[in-house]
UniProtKB/TrEMBL annotation:
One Pfam family cited in the UniProt record for this chain: Methyltransf_25
Residues annotated as domain Methyltransferase: 40-132
GO BP term (any one): methylation
Tagged with keyword Oxidoreductase: no
Alphabetical keyword list: Methyltransferase, S-adenosyl-L-methionine, Transferase
The keyword S-adenosyl-L-methionine belongs to this UniProt entry's keyword annotation: yes
Name of the protein this chain belongs to: Class I SAM-dependent methyltransferase
InterPro entries according to UniProt: Methyltransf_25 (IPR041698), SAM-dependent_MTases_sf (IPR029063)
MF GO annotations: methyltransferase activity
Amino acid sequence: MADECFRHPRLAAVYDPLDPDRGDLDPYLRMTEEFGARQVLDIGCGTGVFALRLAARGIRVVGVDPAGASLAVARGKPDGDRVRWIHGDATALPPLAADLATMTGNAAQEITDPENWHAFLRGARAALRPGGRLVFETRIPARRAWEEWNREATYAVTDVPGTGAVEYWVELLDVSGPLVTFRQVYRFAADGQVLTSESTLRFRERREVETELVARGFVVEDIREAPDRPGREFVFVARRPETAH
């Protein structure tokens, strides 16, 4: 199930204004060109920022997300009808033959249950044509990103057009092995409403991800750094082989 920040209509509506700098998507756009992808599956597409950028380049895009409120925002954007939006996840997709499947924004870490992770990898592989690639990012555990997830480091006030000022901050709740739980807090100045969204992320080691990709029928083609966050994230490029193995 999607976190509250994605499935609550009021929070989904302010998701983009509260995170306007999406320079993190630029490397994925470049990889789309690098791999010559003409059909892309955007897994965990959220409010559709990346999917719509691809569609603007003439690429056929399918965006899938379990959060209906986020998809409603995506559909309502200019040119939203140029993307095929699917309410669901990678485990129950219609037949596709994508050149590239992407999962941006560290969304892969939101899949915390091992069986669900395996099902995701199987579903993503099935959605690719032979030779197609899956690309996703995940934070490097040793960098301990959660140490910066506190009110002092994250507090901000954003004036959202049509909504008013929104206060936002993060509170770290628990660190248990590879699982990190935190709370996002939103306060709407217009009426004083406070909404929260709790999330748990799984921090996977590089070798763990490589092993599970291979076990699910992928070839690990490359492991890169996120150019805008050097040393902080792994970017995995995995290929579905041309022939079964």
